[in-house]
């Protein structure tokens, strides 16, 4: 799979890694125009547009908070967080890939666990795989992913992989641990 890249605290990205095809999806964003947080890799951006379009049709109001996050920006956030949990060390945030997007409910800008129980959070959990996204940091998988439960953080993997991970309840870490990313022998 083209979009199966694994980024976590054990597999950080190179500080110089910048995706080559970042574009701004046509979805509502909280961040102002020209903000790099509005950027995603092209395929993820197109998929996000389709996801938002479907949500809109079903009267689910979503908006984007954070897409792409540079290594430098991660350094800034990490040093200002001063060891607070939930902030990944630089290179360990998959937002640097341009494949991750934080989506809270439109009426509530806060990224909180309670989002999972909102109408929007339930909708997102049930529909994101249809558009090639997974909920990257599920509940009860904190020890495996190294991240707290984040019902607002979706990650583009392509429809095939997103569907199989969602159906099996596997995280990207488990997919790698089991060697499923390797071509069959
Ligand atoms: Zn995120």
Explain what this protein looks like in three dimensions.
There is one protein chain. The protein is an alpha+beta fold and 185 residues long. Helix content is 30%, strand content 8%. It has helices spanning 42-57, 71-81, 119-127, 142-145, 159-168, 172-177; strands at residues 22-23, 40-41, 100-102, 133-135, 153-156. The longest helix has 16 residues, at 42-57. It is globular and about 45 Å long. It starts with 21 loop residues before the first strand and ends in an 8-residue tail after the last helix. The model has no long low-confidence stretch (mean pLDDT 93). Zinc ion (ZN) is lined by residues 66, 95, 100, 102, 153.
Q: How is the secondary structure organized here?
A:
Layout: E1 22-23, E2 40-41, H1 42-57, H2 71-81, E3 100-102, H3 119-127, E4 133-135, H4 142-145, E5 153-156, H5 159-168, H6 172-177
Antiparallel strand pairs: 1-2, 3-5, 4-5
Rg is 15 Å
Strand content: 5-15%
Low-confidence stretches: none
The pLDDT mean sits at 93
Helix content: 25-40%
Element string (H = helix, E = strand): EEHHEHEHEHH
Name the strands of the widest sheet in spatial order.
3-5-4
Distance between the termini: 16 Å
Count of extended strands: 5
Cofactors and ligands:
zinc ion
Class derived from helix and strand content: alpha+beta
